[in-house]
Design goal:
By secondary structure, this protein is an alpha+beta fold. The protein has helices spanning 5-13, 15-26, 38-54, 135-151, 174-183, 234-237, 244-252, 276-284, 289-296, 306-314, 355-372, 397-410, 424-433, 458-478; strands at residues 58-62, 66-69, 72-75, 79-84, 92-98, 118-120, 125-127, 158-164, 195-198, 210-215, 217-226, 232-233, 318-325, 336-337, 340-349, 378-387, 390-391, 415-419, 436-439, 455-457. The chain folds into two domains: 5-215 and 390-478, Aminopeptidase; 217-271 and 316-387, Alpha-Beta Plaits (2-Layer Sandwich). 35% of the residues lie in helices and 22% in strands. Helix 1 packs antiparallel against helix 14 (458-478) and helix 5 runs parallel beside helix 13 (424-433).
Length: 483
């Protein structure tokens, strides 16, 4: 079902208003990980709820508890939930997004104030923290609601909303809320939901729209090696004592090879090789080894084969070493033997890997390898956090509706992708509600989410608004429900 022309025309005619709406949202520095900005996250929640209320959405702000941060006990930002439409003959679509953002300062390398949306009229790029992650997509949904409200058009589906303010800080409190609402059935905020749509990811590149049906999970570790009671002088103690750094480097070197093969026994157990159909998906993607190397800033891909590189990026598990704490760094030549050092690394997981199983295998392997070092230093393995991988049925009508909408708006078929990162709430919705979850991105692969000079192209913002609205009409069409 093609979206009504008056809806599409409304988006074009109100582009300035929609950009101003995004500017208002970006101007609220809703940094969830900064205790000093917690009130700004609450202010963003109030702002968003007020916008939803304008367009006939029944809303509530759900308290999610408290957290300990920077030595304080702070209230968690509320989940903003909403509903509009109760027609039993229509499908019900649940929309998720997050209104918190990563920290940002001009001193980090921003060319402009990160909390002032700046439009470069020559390039059509809008710079500002949260512009693409994830305030732009949320504003897209508000734009869809406004258009239908102002035009007097009935929405083609019933809609439910769940917006949170802690996604960038682990989504604390949200999983429990979703689970409790799911148990309420028809009486809960998510009662009767037929599918979920999340816009919190990006195209593979800056050319071709994408639909994402898989995300990798995560396990994150810190190996802490301790020896002497204090840092020592290498000229006095070097060669006479067991050094923690030497042990740590040895252990980190036993985790993964240069080409990315993980050395932990059993870590690949149960992972099936890609079949011909899956390989065709990867080979058909508008993405190349050159694209990856351009994004990475160097000729460093692990292979020259397109499918191999794409699978390494999004389909296969990986292990990355992130850093060493407690050691000397900086200018000069300090001849210190660190007393305690920590090495942080993580694994990205794919089905059927589970965080608890991988954790056990990692800890067993490190314990055995540490014993082989015959050092008098001690080791402690800290498990920092984990997340379960997710893969959806990309042949489901939810994805077909999104594909049809993409083709209608962008006049080209989308890439079907999996992503290497993690969005834990995706699996939370899938498991608790038992419905198909779709990742429908608005932004491009070069938007720089979490980075300096984060941006969203005006064209993606406006066309993305049309895409979100068109998707709702395609859901109604493909499922044969009344529009």
């Amino acid at each position: 079902m093609v979206a009504p022309a008056q809806f599409l025309d409304y988006v074009d005619a109100n582009s300035t208003k929609f950009i101003d709406r995004l500017a208002e949202a970006v101007a609220i520095p809703s940094i969830s990980g900064d205790a000093q900005r917690r009130e700004d996250v609450f202010a963003m929640a109030r702002w968003l709820r007020a916008e939803l209320d304008k367009f006939g959405v029944t809303t509530d702000a759900i308290p999610l508890g408290t957290q300990h941060i920077e030595g304080q006990v702070l209230a968690l930002p509320p989940a903003i939930v909403g509903r509009i439409g109760e027609d039993a003959e229509k499908k019900t679509v649940l929309v998720y997004g997050h209104f918190d953002v990563q920290p940002a300062n001009v001193s980090d390398g921003w060319n402009t104030d990160p909390f002032k949306l700046v439009l470069d009229k020559d390039t059509g790029k809008m710079f500002g923290r949260g512009s693409t992650d994830d305030k732009g997509p949320i504003m897209g949904w508000l734009n869809v609601l406004e258009a239908h409200h102002k035009l007097g058009l009935p929405l083609p589906v019933n809609m439910r909303f769940c917006f949170e303010g802690m996604e960038e800080s682990g989504s604390e409190g949200l999983d429990d809320f979703i689970a409790s609402e799911a148990k309420k059935g028809a009486d809960g905020w998510f009662g009767g939901v037929d599918c979920v749509c999340i816009s919190d990811n990006y195209w593979l590149n800056d050319r071709t729209p994408a639909l994402t049906y898989g995300l990798r999970g995560l396990t994150y570790f810190n190996i802490v090696i301790s020896g002497p009671g204090a840092d020592l002088h290498s000229g006095i103690f070097g060669g006479a004592v067991f050094e923690p750094m030497t042990a740590l480097v040895a252990l980190l070197g036993k985790l993964v090879t240069q080409d990315g093969h993980i050395l932990i026994p059993g870590v690949y157990d149960g992972i099936k090789a890609a079949d011909d159909e899956e390989l065709r998906i990867y080979n058909s993607l508008d993405y190349s080894v050159a694209d990856l190397e351009a994004a990475a800033g160097g000729h460093i891909a692990v292979s020259d084969d397109k499918a191999t590189v794409i699978m390494a990026r999004m389909r296969n598990p990986s292990l990355s070493i992130h850093g060493i704490e407690g050691a000397f760094s900086g200018v000069g030549a300090k001849t210190v033997i660190p007393a305690t050092v920590g090495g942080k690394f993580s694994l990205r997981l794919v089905p059927p890997q589970q965080p608890d199983d991988i954790r056990a295998k990692v800890e067993k392997y490190l314990t055995e390898e540490f014993a082989k070092l015959n050092t008098k230093s001690s080791m402690k393995i800290e498990y920092l956090h984990g997340g379960i991988p997710w893969v959806a049925d990309h042949k489901h009508w939810n994805y077909q509706a999104a594909k049809n909408a993409t083709e209608a708006v962008y006049l080209k078929s989308p890439d079907f992708t999996r992503e290497g990162g993690s969005i834990p709430v995706t699996l939370t919705f899938a498991e608790n509600l038992g419905v198909n979850v779709l990742l429908l991105p608005m932004g491009r692969g070069d938007d720089g989410a979490h980075s300096t000079n984060e941006k969203l192209d005006v064209s993606n913002y406006l066309q993305g608004t049309k895409l979100l609205g068109s998707y709702l009409y395609e859901v109604a069409e493909i499922t044969g429900t009344k529009a």
